[in-house]
Amino acid sequence: MPEEQLRVGVIGCGAGIFHLEGYAQEPRVRTVALAGLDTDRCDQLATRFGVERRYGDYHELLAQDDIDAVSVVVPNNLHLPVVTAALEAGKHVLVEKPLARNTAEGEEMVATAKRTGKLLGIAFQRRNRHDVRIVRDLVEQGELGRVYYGKAYWIRRSGIPGWGSWFTSKEAAGGGPLIDLGVHVLDMALYAMGNPTVTAVSGITFAEIGPQGKGNWPGRRSSMPAGAGHQYEVEDLAVALLRLEDGRALELEASWATYTEMTDEFGIQLYGSKGGAKIHAKDYAEVGTLQLFGDIGDTAVDSTPRLRAAHGHAAIIHDFVSAIRDGAPLSPSGEEGLERVRIIDAIYRSAELGHEVQIGS
Ligand SMILES: NC(=O)c1ccc[n+]([C@@H]2O[C@H](COP(=O)([O-])OP(=O)(O)OC[C@H]3O[C@@H](n4cnc5c(N)ncnc54)[C@H](O)[C@@H]3O)[C@@H](O)[C@H]2O)c1
């Protein structure tokens, strides 16, 4: 007899669609409930994915005793209350990035997961890209030698995800492109480098284009229409230099709006003592994005590996379900989400203070 399916709920009907798609590919799961305040979109998603129960506020969904796990896909300021309530209600949780708006919130969430004995995972789905996996393996096998320097960036020409929505509210989002996009490429780079400890950061932020009312993402769906309440209160460009253990370094750049040739492009580059690697993804490309640099004999060689397109949320959800079902180790975990938040938090602090900030001291 087949094992009974895990019963999950999804909270949030925006990027919640990625979770619904991921669960739909997972035979060990049945998505039984969906919650969200934007009724029309939630109804459409419930119909499309055959989800039987639809709720407004998330408390109603969490009160359902037959739900084993939930995905939390709501604005950043709601991650702490919704994740806490879900863990307290006995549900395992997969939360969207960033884990939280700041370190204190993240620590509370990780502590609650520990206390309740429930799993807390985070959707750093870009780790599952084939190019990232290849680079991570090469670093692990020592093929690039000592990776002493890296760059990570996500640059948009005009990509503020809803001017005036929760994304541009400091209170609701915790920050701008650094916490929204920067956290993804920071995770990709540190993951590929083998998770070195970050000891100090120096950050600078700018808000030059957003406050002019420019730089909105054309056609981007948002649960809150542009101009529906908030002003532009966050940065539109953040740059940072991170000191890593063993004298290594990482440069980070994240922007929603910049006068540049880049439209919506992210990537990482690693410099090693025996070789290098560069991932550059334009408009979310998944293949043709990786270059490797090395030597064959005395000859410098650049190569372009053949890649498979790999969508991340399905793999994240597969691992989350395996961790619940079989006790497989969960990665990326809430703890890993918290490590990234500590760094983002320190970069914002450094930008405010105007000098380098140590981490963990
Ligand atoms: N991993 C990724 O690539 C990725 C992509 C986009 C967004 N995200 C993350 O997902 C989260 C949500 O972003 P989004 O783009 O979907 O935002 P959104 O504004 O499009 O959607 C937010 C959803 O939360 C719901 N919501 C708000 N308050 C609620 C409540 N009290 N009860 C139930 N539902 C409630 C809204 O109704 C809406 O459906 C953010 O943390 C964001 O960073 C991640």
Describe the structure.
The chain has 10 helices and 15 strands. It is of the alpha/beta class and 361 residues long. It folds into 2 domains: 124 residues, 3-Layer(aba) Sandwich (Rossmann fold), CATH 3.40.50; 185 residues, Dihydrodipicolinate Reductase, domain 2. The chain has a 9-stranded mixed β-sheet. α2 links the parallel β2 and β3. α1 crosses α9. The longest helix is centred in the C-terminal third of the chain and has 20 residues. Nicotinamide-adenine-dinucleotide binds next to loops.
Would you kindly provide a brief summary of this structure?
The protein is α/β, with parallel strands linked by helices. The chain is 32% helix and 25% strand.
Write the layout of secondary structure elements.
Elements: E1 6-11, H1 16-24, E2 29-35, H2 39-49, E3 53-55, H3 58-62, E4 69-72, H4 79-88, E5 92-95, H5 103-116, E6 120-122, H6 130-140, E7 147-156, H7 170-173, H8 177-192, E8 198-206, E9 237-244, E10 248-255, E11 264-272, E12 276-282, E13 290-296, E14 299-303, H9 312-326, H10 334-353, E15 357-358
Parallel strand pairs: 1-2, 1-4, 2-3, 4-5, 5-6, 7-10
Antiparallel strand pairs: 7-11, 8-9, 8-15, 9-10, 11-12, 12-13, 13-14
Helix pairs in contact: 1-9, 4-5, 5-10, 6-8
This protein binds nicotinamide-adenine-dinucleotide.
Residues 11-15, 35-38, 57-58, 73-76, 78, 96-97, 123, 125, 180, 222-223 line the site of nicotinamide-adenine-dinucleotide.
